[in-house]
Amino acid sequence: MGFLSTPSIWIATEFDIQQFEFPTLDLTKFNPTPIPQKLRLGHQMEFVCKQLLDESDDYEVLIHNLPIRKKKQTIGEIDYIIRQISTQQLIHVELTYKFYLIDTEIPGIIHQLIGPNKRDSFFTKLQKIKNNQFSLIHSEAGHSTLSAKGIDTYEMLQQTLYKAQLYVPWGHTFEDIQPLNSNCIVGYWLRLSDFHSHPFSAYQFYIPTKNQWVIKPHLDTKWSSFNDVLIIIKERLSHQSSPMVWMKINETEIDKIFIVWW
User: Fold this and answer.
1) Does residue 36 sit in the same domain as residue 158?
2) Is 173 inside a domain boundary?
3) 120: Cα within 13 Å, side-chain hemisphere
4) Are 216 and 159 in the same domain?
5) Angle at 237 between CA 236 and CA 241, to 5 degrees
């Protein structure tokens, strides 16, 4: 399962934020509810995460996707409040699942992680978690909403479940990206000029749907030639959309790459 196999972007506590350690699950009898395809990818991950938490014997989900409103305006949403069964400890968990490219032209690894279309960044998300998402339960509206549901916010722990796939520049290798987790590195990114200049024409390609971005590439799909996929890639780039591409090198090796418009 793509969600479970994606590592957390850091281990334990970094940036004054504790990472939620997902419980070990026995999925032999797990019968998941199909994911609604109309949901955005982030909401699909929340849907999957909720089912997996429900499957755990270690935690009980008390709150899921609870909007917090001030008067009639929604000021935020709480992803999960769970109770650890063994200790009865309440934990506020905010879920994040991201795809980041490592742009080495930017100083500092914390600032180098950006979205494929440059619309988001790791550093900006960190600030949002600290200053907006975590502070929400302590706001007057958050405290009032949760108190009405019988939930005490004062002794509650706050953690993030921050999963990510990281992509390095084509031709680069990264063994150490501390304090981040190098196990998150799963592929490469490059520009169209690089895609033209490297000897990729011998390979086969597939452009996965966004729902498939999460999973590991597999052979069971309809592969296209370099020339055929290039037409689709150029069309995506013309709309400032950076496609993910599976590149089949041989019967045992498939690379995940992003080709960026910028």
Assistant:
1) yes
2) no
3) 11
4) no
5) 70
Paired strand residues for 70: 73
Question: What is the C-alpha to C-alpha distance for residues 261 and 241, in angstroms, rounded to an integer?
Answer: 7
Distances (CA, A) of 63 to 56, 66, 68: 15, 7, 12
Residue-wise pLDDT for 20-67, tens only, equals 999 999 888 888 898 888 899 999 999 999 999 999 999 999 999 999
In a domain, 70, yes or no: yes
Q: Name residue, tokens 């609870």.
A: 66
Give the separation between CA 25 and CA 65, rounded to whole angstroms: 22
154-193: per-residue pLDDT in tens?
A: 899 999 999 999 999 998 888 789 999 999 999 999 999 9
Q: Do 140 and 192 sit in the same domain of this protein?
A: no
Kindly state the DSSP code that residue 104 receives in the 8-state scheme.
T
On whether both 115 and 197 belong to a single domain, the answer is no
Contacts of 75 (CB under 8 A, 6+ apart): 68, 69, 136, 139, 141
User: How far is it, in rounded angstroms, from Cα 58 to Cα 55?
Assistant: 9
**Do 151 and 189 sit in the same domain of this protein?**
no
| DSSP letters for 71-97 | TTEEEEEEEEEEEETTT--EEEEEEEE
pLDDT in tens, 77-115: 999 999 999 999 999 999 999 999 999 999 999 999 999
Domain that holds residue 93: 2-165
Instruction: Count the alpha carbons within 13 Å of 108 in the hemisphere toward its beta carbon.
Output: 5
Owner of token pair 């089912």: 51
Place of tokens 């958050």: 142
Pairing of β 157-169 and β 17-19: parallel
